[in-house]
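Service request form, structural biology core

Requester: graduate student, group of Dr. S.
Request type: structure prediction, single chain
Budget code: on file
Notes: please return the result as structure tokens.

Sequence provided:
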Amino acid sequence: MSETTEYAETASPGEGDAAPAASRSRKDSSTSSWRSRLYRWDIKASPYVFVAPFFLFFGAFGLFPLLYTGWASLHRLELTNLDSSTWLGLENYTNLLQSDYFWNALGNTFTIGIISTVPQLAIAIGIAHLLNYKLRGSTLWRVAMLAPYATSVASASLVFTLLFAWDGGMVNWIIGSVGIDPVNWRESSWGSQFAVSSIVIWRWTGYNALIYLAAMQAVPHDLYESASLDGASRWQQFRHVTIPMLRPTILFTVVVSTIGATQLFGEPLLFGGTAGSKGGADHQFQTLGLYLYDQGWINGHLGRASAVAWLMLVILLLIAAVNLLIARRLRKDR
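Core staff response, request fulfilled:
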């Protein structure tokens, strides 16, 4: 009897521990399953969380303004009465295409783009070619190339406005010293466009030069060694080796400069002074950016200004399409 009682006393604690052990195992299994689910959610959701700020900012400051200007371009929307709008359809676009001021702004944008882009990129290639050779203080020269780009548009435009001043400007003083009559740069059609283009050239030449320099340093030296063994001079190496290898980079800078010229705004606005938004008294250097600003914020026609913005977008898309076709042609030639 005592042995049975003793056996029961010794066996009962083991049986009592089985329930807490089972509950602990169930808790551990539920905890591990919860952690595994959390881990799977983390793996799937983390990339979207990381990229979500970009899409939020893009939606707020990129997509929404684009869609809103598209909506406004189809309505009569005035700056003085933003709560009232009238459906016009494509009337704003037809009015723009029939406006002489729009075509004048488009022509000025094209001419200023040509005058500023061609010399700018030609000078940039020359500077990059010089910096590609071993020079003393090459780092200093490269930093100096970025100094105009780091200068604000307002500062550069005000300095060039003083340089091209009708009375007392340094440019008129220089051309007067060689017997040329002074030019009223702000009132002259070609003179004003040349003055605005000079600001763009001064600001962006160094930036493009560094892009060309990086592309030149990626050209294999074996090509230059082979050309020199064949008796090619440095000029011939530049023409037949450097320029062909820089074609994709040149195409890139041409496209970027063309886009910048299409959106040109700050330089002509500050150069024109009180008549800056109109591009001079006769609209002689009014660009598409100035025309948009004049229609939207001076005249208060936000619907027409939105139509100008969308036409500028169409022009940029056409430029991108031409860039794509030329890039494909270059790849096929290779």
